[in-house]
Each structure stands twice: as C-alpha cells, then as structure tokens.
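Bench notes, bay 3.
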Amino acid sequence: MILDFHNKALLITALSHRSSLNEKTQSGTTATESNERLEFLGDAVLELAATLYLYQQRPKENEGKLTAYRSALVRTETLAQLAKELKLDKQMFLSKGEELSGGRKNKSLLADLMEAVIGALYLDQGFEAVQAFLAKYLFPKFNDILQTGSYKDQKSLLQEEMQARALGTPVYQVIKAIGPDHDKEFTVEVLVGDKIYGVGVGHSKQLAQQAAATAALTKLT
C-alpha cells in the first residue's frame, strides 16, 4: 500500500465496500462498518483541498472557471483513474457477487473508494497529510485537464457541436434506473431528433447526462 497508516483499521474500513460485510469470510475484511461514512467525509475534505490548491494556483481566474476546474479534478473519472494507479482496486474488499459483476472496474465505486481513503487519511494524519498526498498524486493531473480542455461542461460542448453542425438541440432522457434510493444508478441517452448519439451511466441523472454527452462527443469527433 502506498499509504502508511498509523491506524490500520481505518484503512481496512476505507477499503471495505458494504457488500463485503455480508461475506466477511469470503471477502477477507475485518471491518465492522463499510466505507460509506469515510466516503462522505473524504468527499468534503477533497473538495476543500482542491479548492485551496486551485485558489492558490490560479489567482486570476474567476469563480466560474475555478468551479469548472475543481469539478474536473474531483469528478468520478479522475478519481477512478487515480484509484487504479494506486492499485486500490486490487486491495478493495468486495463480496463475491460484487466481484463477479465487475465491481473492481466500476468507475463510480472506485471514485467512492478513493474518497473513503482520503477521509481515512484525514482522520489518521490530518489535513496537511491529505494535501501532501493529493499534491503528489492528484493535483499533477490538473495540467492535463487544462491542456485537453476537459474541465468544460460536456453538455455545453455537445450543444455547441450540434449547433455548429446544424443538427439540432440534444435531448436527454432516462431509460433505466436501478438500485435502492440511496444508491440508484441511472442510464441516460442523448438524442437529436430520433437519433441516439450517446448513452451514459451515473449515480445521479446529472452525472449520467454528462456521461452521455461525453459518449456523443466521442462519437462525433
């Protein structure tokens, strides 16, 4: 593990998906609770750390641009990529069913895992340790975000692209919603006229719409 925790139990909890608690023997976890509370904490700590970083690094940018930067830096895809780079996906505790359904490749689950680890690190070593960790592993990704322009809202970019091609206005519709209310997953398709240009999945309608817009842009370009 790339992180050295004083309280190993915190790290184990951070790595424990809720499904693993139902199959402790099979999953190997010794946690008494899932990583959901640590994820909640880590989300807030990450947002503050990213906000401070961008505020200091981009002193001439306005609030709107800084918000767009931060959204790109802490979004699901970025965090999931970091979790894989740190090999957290291989260390996560999952039930057999979640494992077989591709849980270790699920971007949303991996992003949640990353936030839980950040929350655990904050409790274990404090905010400065979190900042140092993010400065080494997450914040360097900001240069790529700037260069690729991926901080721009995907729905806005898609609308601009459609208008430039005189194809019409994109319309988003939910085609599937599965799971319990606290962990629902939405599938959204984006259409122009009767043609489907992209399909996206997310744990909110907004995230699913952004994913659908990204898929449509990829198809168009």
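Next record in the batch:
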Amino acid sequence: MSSILKQPYFSKLTSMGVGGSPSEFYEPGSRDEFCRLLGSLEDPFILGGGCNTIFPDGEFSRPVISTRKLEELRISEDGRVYAEAGVRLNKIIRKTVNAGLGGLEKLAGIPGTVGGATAMNAGNGPDACFGLHTRKLHVVSPGSGVVKTIRGDEVPWLYRDWNMPGWVVLAIELELEPGERQELRREMKLYEDRKSKTQPLVHASAGCMFRNPGDGLSAGKLIQGCNLKGLARGGAEVSRLHANFIVNRLRSASSDDVKRLMKEVTRQVEEQTGYLLEPEVVFARDHELETSREY
C-alpha cells in the first residue's frame, strides 16, 4: 500500500534542502500501485531521489508520487540487469561492478535513482551516459497508467535528457559487458574520488546547476572566469570549490534564494561572455503536466 503523508517537507526530500510541502504525497510500494496512481491522479509530479529538483516555497498543489519504494533489482549472469525506477544509482553501480559487469563504473559518484538517471540521461561526459547501456525501458503514460515497453535505441536521447516528455520511467533493462572485477572497482573508485575532491559534496546542493553550453565549454569554468565563486543571495551561495554548484551551506536557503542567485549568475555570465546558460536542474511547477527547466 502507498503511504500518504500529510506534511512531508521538500527540504527533507531533496538534496538541495529547500522548498515547501506537497498538498498530497504518495509512496507506492509496488509497480501495480504506481501505475494505478498514475492513472487516477491529475497532473502528478514524479519524484525520484530529489537530487536535481527544486520545489517552490509554500504549498505545492500538484500531487507528488515518490518512486523510492520501487527498489526491485535483478542481475543475471549473462549481463542483463532489471532495475525499477527507485533503485539508487550508487547501488546499481556497485552491484554490477561486484558482479563483474562493466559499463556503469564511469557513472560512479552521480547521485539519484535509476528513474532520474534515465530521464536526465545522467553521465560523466558524452561517452559515459546512462542511455548508452539501456536496452529496454518500461514506461507509463500518466492519465492511463498503461505500461509500454520500448527499446533503448528507440529513445531520442539528448545531452542530459531522454527527450520523452509526458512519459514516466517505471523500470529499465540494461545490457552490460563482462569485465575484470578489480579493474572495474579501481575505475569506480577513481570516479568517486575525483568527485569528492572537486565537488562540494559535504554541503546541500542539487549538483551541477547549469548545462555546459557546447563548443567544448564548461559552465563551471565560465562562472569561475566571471569571478562569481562565493556570490550569494540569501542562504544560497555559488560554491567556492566548484562554480557550477549552488550550495545551501547553512541549510538556511529558500527556493527563491536559489532562483534569484541562478538569475544573477545567468545575467553576469551573459554580460561578460555572451553565453546564455541554461539550467540543468528541474524546477517543479504547479498546474503543469510537464516540468520546466526555466526559472
């Protein structure tokens, strides 16, 4: 059965630690219940690990469905992996690496869940994206609750986007290649260590806030080049370690603080460099079927 919590707070449900509370909150405990909710609720917002999502301050009027209890994970000896949307990304990476299956080790250190990693086509650079290893997807259309299975090569993958608005990830199937366990573990640790040294993981954040603008340019380097490290609005601050992170260092920021700071960073970077940064994080909005990256 699903849990309906009267007053959960988005500050506890998201890694940025900001936002108000949902008017309705559901945690389905099975894929059947998840599909029933999708078929019966009007305009639900699907929440995975909450690692790249910013909710507004105050009450959020759309019903929120959490995937965190959809945790089934199966790994077969032939390299096939089945994972439901709520499986944590770090769990599936460690399990596959320990099973001697290669492909996900370069994603080590990326937070979130399988559902979010699929919808965001999570990755470390263009050659290490989640979509590259996705053989099948089991997706649901909100409003109908009907499950459809599609091949991974039918998905119009984009940089940090699976480009399938209006669909919800229920589960995925991966096809990974056998590898030497010690080498895979070494590679996994390399990526984990690199992130811990270069990213402000000790502070509340939503990961990288802006997309890289292309042309081989890094959003973080553009922001740093504009001398914006340490810039703050309210409790939100541009990280002094990695300029593409906004941190809620003292956990005193509001959602509005984050938005105001992002707008100021965007304005200054465009004025100084001519590049218009686009957000990589998702801003949840009331009364919209699809989420928007605008703020």
